Structure formats: C-alpha cells, structure tokens
Amino acid sequence: MATTELGTLQLAGTKKGKISISNVSEPYxxxxxxxxxxxxxxxxxxxxxxxxxxxxxxxxxxxxxxxASEKKKEED
Length: 76
Fold this sequence. Notes:
alpha+beta; four-stranded antiparallel sheet; 4 strands; flat
C-alpha cells in the first residue's frame, strides 16, 4: 500500500483542522484497485475520520456533493 497526497484544505469552522485528500494504491492488498482517501483532522495532525472511495464511484459522489452544495446555497 502506498499513499500519495493529492491536496489539503483548511477545515471550515476550526482553527487548525484540515481535510486531506490522497490516492491509496493497493489499499486492500496486492492487486486491489486504487481509491481516493479523504481524511479529516481537527488538530491538523491526527486523522480522526477517513473515507475510502473507489475511483469507479468518484464521479457519482462528486455529483451528489455538488447537488448538496447547490441546495444548501439555495437555503441560505
């Protein structure tokens, strides 16, 4: 398993929190497909929450997140 950081963002509503997005190669053993890992760190160091998303699901996840963002903007 190898992890490559793709980017980090400041976690809104926190002083030190970060969202880190990484590619993980062979996450579940040799020959398993890469995934995107999204980690949340409240203190900027230790990951408290993590999600693994297969690349095959990534476009659908992005579409749902964009829809959620648009609905939230309409509410505000």
